Amino acid sequence: ARLAPNVHVVAGDMEFTGPQSAAFPETTVVTVGEFRIGVIHGHQLTPWGDHMALGMMRRKLGCDILISGHTHKNEVVEQEGFFHINPGSITGAYSATNPGVTPSFVLLAVQGSKVVCYVYELVNGEVDVSKTEFSKTLAEDGEVLLR
What whole-number distance in Å separates Cα of residue 145 and Cα of residue 118? Predict the structure, then answer.
């Protein structure tokens, strides 16, 4: 289901039961610029937040960047030449796996083959912003590389 042309939603682990529970897919893949970006809540993978498990899902979805959540802990991690991004929890909602949740969200600025990933965190009442940049290139053998 789409809420708006540029809003993509996947089902989480606390969705309603009944007819509305099927309103959103388990995963989705969107193309932005030259990147295929996969989105999954993350409760489907074990262990939660494990980068080997995330890598398997990223390969299954055929994406360059995998965005997942569930742990409420933000992180931007390079894995096998691709990126796993967890935006965390914008409200700082409690998590059984991470009781000290820092409110956070991620903004991706994509231009063609370049991505700038901004992570916003609320730390001691102040907004802290960090950024990670990476580009998509092709190796001589045709393999896609993110750097």
Answer: 21
144 near 136, Cβ under 8 Å?
Answer: yes
Q: Shortest CA distance to 81 belongs to which of 16, 135, 141?
A: 135
Q: Which one, of 2, 97, 118, 13, lies nearest residue 47 by Cα? A: 97
Cβ within 8 Å of residue 94, ≥6 positions away: 72, 101
- The pLDDT assigned to 92 comes to 82
| CA distances in angstroms from 135 to 60, 107, 111, 123, 144, listed in the order given | 22, 16, 10, 29, 10
**d(C-alpha 127, C-alpha 4), whole Å:** 28
Q: How far apart are CA 89 and CA 36, in angstroms?
A: 23
Cβ burial of 21 (10 Å; 0-12, 13-18, 19+) is exposed
Tens-digit pLDDT profile for residues 87-133: 888 888 877 777 788 899 999 999 988 999 999 999 999 999 999 99
